[in-house]
Model the fold of this input.
Amino acid sequence: MNLSEPQAGAGFFWSKGFRPFFLVAAAFACVSMAVWMAALFFGLALDTGSVSYFQWHAHELLFGYASAVISGFLLTAVTNWTGRDTLSGYGLMVLVAAWLVARVGWLVGGYGVWVGGVTDGLFWLLLIVAVARPVIATKQWRQLGVLAKLLLMFSAHVFFFLDAIGLAEGAAYPAIYIGLFSLIGLILMMLRRIFPFFVKAASGGQVELPNPSWVDKASLVTFTLFLVVFVLAVDSPLMPFSAAALGLVLLVRLLNWYHPFIWQAPLLWSLYLSLAYIVLGCWMLAWSYWSIEYRYLAVHAWSYGGLGLASIGMLVRVSIGHSGGDVRAKRPWMLMALIIFSLGTVLRVFGPIIAPQSQAVLLLSQVAWILSFGLCFIHLLPILTQSPQIGSR
Done:
C-alpha cells in the first residue's frame, strides 16, 4: 500500500480502482445471480430484447460482474507495472458510473437495453484508454496482450448489443464465447504473474514454483489456436484436438505448481483450483465434440470454476493486502466464503452429470454463489471504505 494515499473518506475510496470496483462487483454478483434465480425458477419476467434469458445471464456475468473485477485488478496492477497512475478521483467515478448505468439498463430492459449497450461500450473504451496510456507512455509492449484481450471484450460486447437490438441476429452466441475466452486468457495471464509470487511470499521464501518458459510459449500458441478454431470452425475435428492440446499444456503448469504448502492458505488453494477447473473445462470442451451437453458443463467449469474462483480469491486478497492488512491472518469468514463457493462450483459443474434431472442442484449452486459473495461484501465493505487499520480483522 502507498501510505501517501488519503487514509479515510471519499479520497481514500476513490484513490485506487480496486476499491469501488471490487465493492460493486461483490454486490452485483449477489444481485445478478438472485435475479437470474428468480427468472429461472420463480417466473420473474425479464425484458432482454432480442436475446434469450440465458444469453442475458451470460452477458451480465462476463461483461458485468467479471468486468468489474478485471477493471479493479488492472487499474491497480498497471500502476504497479508501469509506475504511472491509471485512474483515480473523478475519472474513476466516471468509469464506475458508466458500469453502474449499464447494469441498470440491462436489468430494466426495453429502452434500457439501448442505455445498457451504449454505456457498456463507453465503459470498455474508457477502460482501454486508462490501461493503454501508462503502458504506451512507458513502452511496456509486453502488456499489449492485455490490451488485445480488452479490445476483444469490447468487440464481443458490440456484437452482443447489436443482436439485442435486432441488428445482428445470432451474434450474441459467438460474442458470449469470445468474451468468456478473453476473460479466461486474462485469468491465465494473471495467475502466471502472481501465483508463484504469492506462494513464495506466503511461505517466507521457502517455496519457489517453477515457471518454464516453454510452457508460457506453448500456452499462448495453443490458446490462440483454440480460440480461432472454436470461433471459426467449432464443428470441425480440429476443435477437440485444439482444446485437448490447450488442456495438456495447462495440465503441465498445474502439476508444476503443485506443492502441499498451498493447502495451508485459502487464498492460494482457491487460485490453484481455479486453474484446475480451467484444465477440466478444456477436456470437457474436447469431449463435447462427441457429447454436446459437455460444452455447457465446460462453460461453467471455466466461468463458475475458473473465472469465479480466481476472481473471488483475487477480490479478497487484493482488497486486504492493498489496504494494509495481513493476508496471512486467519479470517473465518474468508475461509467460509471460499469453501461455500467451492462447493457451489462442484454442484454446478458435476451436479448435472450425477443428477441430470435435478433442478435442486442448480438452485443450490446459485445459493452458494450468493452466500459467498454476500459474506465478501459484508466483510470487505469496511476494509474498502475506511482507514486501513484492519490487521486484526
